[in-house]
């Protein structure tokens, strides 16, 4: 349930919606600041912070030294001290130096201090493959963070949701990992209100209603999943597509409700299969709707291999053809 | 007093911007001097062609090195056959001298797994894209080599931005503590994408950071290949045969400039002035060495023309060979994850091949 107000809208790409979300919140709240590598004068390597440096100045749009642990670690200190930092990690594949700070401190400052200290911050990072990027620039490692209690993990797939979820994340009292599907940063435009609005964290969106099978996905994989669903409709297979939008905490109610209607499910993500979100979603179905189940849950995912260099990435990423084949398997069981 | 013991603020130089001798010229044969010049020309021409390939959509994102040939070539010429090189992602000029061919480098940036396979005879570690991560590796390999009683040096390249990462500190600290025979070579090209060197550290120099690890630091004119050669040679020798009360590791800060973008994905005009670029272009290492070699009577028009032709031919051949390599088979995704392919990975591979058989390649390839 988005709290969209009557307002002027703009036709934005997903990455422009990131920028608009930051701009909107920074205007509204002087405590919000962005920090990271090349976010200032350069406006971010993907232009997600374009113009913010000129608008808000170097104290609120901060080019930092090249040090992810330093970026996140200092952001934790800032957050605990009353600011609302939105650090950017340039690519999700470069987040690992900051992993200790994220899991050992950001995720549990509230728990450890029994609520005395908190860590209201949003760590933004583009993730995922498909843009012919160099090594270490295409990974999809949301499961590492979804595994960590104390972190919320958000992955939008539309410009509208991007701005609304980002604003929710910035206003959230706890740390939020905000992973942006860079494959669709500029793939399409959508209407985005100029004013501030929120899309709640933890609520999935049904992108296509169907009765035969529920397909759960998120981020850049929403598009090939929708394509496969439309193609299958021509053969009389009525696919329901659920865009999770938040992968931690998962929207169990929407997952279970959809599954009870269809009795069959597939999960699509570009992250590797083993230890991925698909396993978690399958477990929820087992726990909550076992007696409705008519087929094994299909996992249509990246392979359990390192993400290949880009000459092979099209094979690695679930394509509409792979999604369709997986759905057919679940239907034919 | 050796070059290395200069005050860190005192930048070592052999040739000035016009190629005039201003310091002690290192002992190099005419063949080596011409070889250095030829490799610098090769690196420059390769770089220009690689940027052009990217612009034409024939290659993915590529990190240019123009302006940095003096540091790359000058330093690898100071290594001996058995020494090792740990590069970042911009050292294809140096890697070429150390046995990683241009075709190999092209394949890597064209997204082929094969591009990451370092030839067996080359003592070069794979490209390290995550910043500074190769520094502890170099320390560890150097340390292991010493434990095994060898006398080899391990040179590790990284940029000014990398000195902000924890791995820089940890790698140099371990090297000092365990007296690893390592040469830490910082290509300070002034810019970490759009962030200037002053934003990385409040230290006056990067070289002075060596003091905190109890090792020597030296700042060198990184666009003066002879000065780079000289300091690297001394650092390599010290790594193998330190004097009494001397630790083996050295931090070299090679002050230089990248003429182009960080990678083909950014536009440097957004974050730096043309005037600044022009000032640094006056220090271009190639004309500098050429002027010196002409002055010494080692190069003349005829020899330079020959080298030009040779360099253009070598790069054209490498491009032709790299572009002749067809799209790898999906099998490459699954190979080499472990010594033995686990059953579940084999199943994923087989299931994918079955789908590919059924639907054809076009169902999976975009564009």
Automatic annotation (TrEMBL), chain A:
Coiled-coil ranges from the UniProt annotation: none
Gene3D superfamilies: 3.40.50.920, 3.40.50.970
InterPro entries: THDP-binding, Transketo_C/PFOR_II, Transketolase-like_Pyr-bd, Transketolase_C
EC number: 1.2.4.-
Gene Ontology molecular functions: oxidoreductase activity
Enzyme class: oxidoreductase
Keyword Oxidoreductase tagged: yes
Cofactor(s) needed: thiamine diphosphate
Ranges where the Transketolase-like pyrimidine-binding domain occurs: 12-187
Keyword Cell division among record annotations: no
GO BP annotations listed: organic acid metabolic process; sulfur compound biosynthetic process
Keywords per UniProt: Oxidoreductase, Thiamine pyrophosphate
Entry protein name: Alpha-ketoacid dehydrogenase subunit beta
From TrEMBL, chain B:
Taxonomy, superkingdom: Archaea
GO biological process terms held by the UniProt record: organic acid metabolic process; sulfur compound biosynthetic process
Membrane-crossing segments per the record: none
InterPro entries, A to Z: Alpha-ketoacid_DH_E1_comp, DH_E1, PdhA/BkdA, THDP-binding
SUPFAM superfamilies associated with the record: Thiamin diphosphate-binding fold (THDP-binding)
UniProt KW keywords: Oxidoreductase, Pyruvate
Pfam families named in the record: E1_dh
Annotated Dehydrogenase E1 component domain residues: 37-330
Organism: Halobium salinum
MF-aspect GO terms: oxidoreductase activity
Record-given protein name: Pyruvate dehydrogenase (Acetyl-transferring) E1 component subunit alpha
